[in-house]
Amino acid sequence: MSKMAKKLNILHQSGQTVFSTNELMLHWSIENKKILYTQISRAKEQGFLRTIQRGLYALDGLEVDRLELAGNLKKKSYISFETVLAKNGLINQWYGSYFLASDREADIENEYGKFNYRKLSEKILNNRLGIIDSGHYFTAGTERAICDYFYKVGFQQLDDLEEIDQNKLIEISKIYHNKRLEKDILKLTKLL
Question: What pTM was computed for the model?
Fold first, then answer.
């Protein structure tokens, strides 16, 4: 097996569909950046890797997990808001975008879709209560996504509330230190 085939095999076995330059460095055990960039360039020339954006790559011929991509387009981010609410049946509309919490506002559009990053303060963003590590990216649990959504948008009617953990919802709402949000969550819990 050639060296390049071994490198590609390592990437396939990782289960990832998106790789940053640093992740390639770790997977391939390359410490020298010049050597790493040469290897990336060769993999691209041979049609094994493709560039998603500067410093972010995918294996050619392998479908990119859009949630994994969303979590990698901006490092300090996690999937939340309408994306999680729609996935869990709390809202019945798809907005055509992936929504994430982040350390700054950004809208990114590429061949894989639209990605909207909404700013949350560092204090909220760094609090991991209600955040799930999905292996290659982070996503808000349902209760955290509700709190994020209400915090940024205000109270909204939600659809299927049967699976909501009322105590967890109230606990998470306290990390925002926002009286309006806490009132909105209490209003929602009366509907549960």
Answer: 0.90
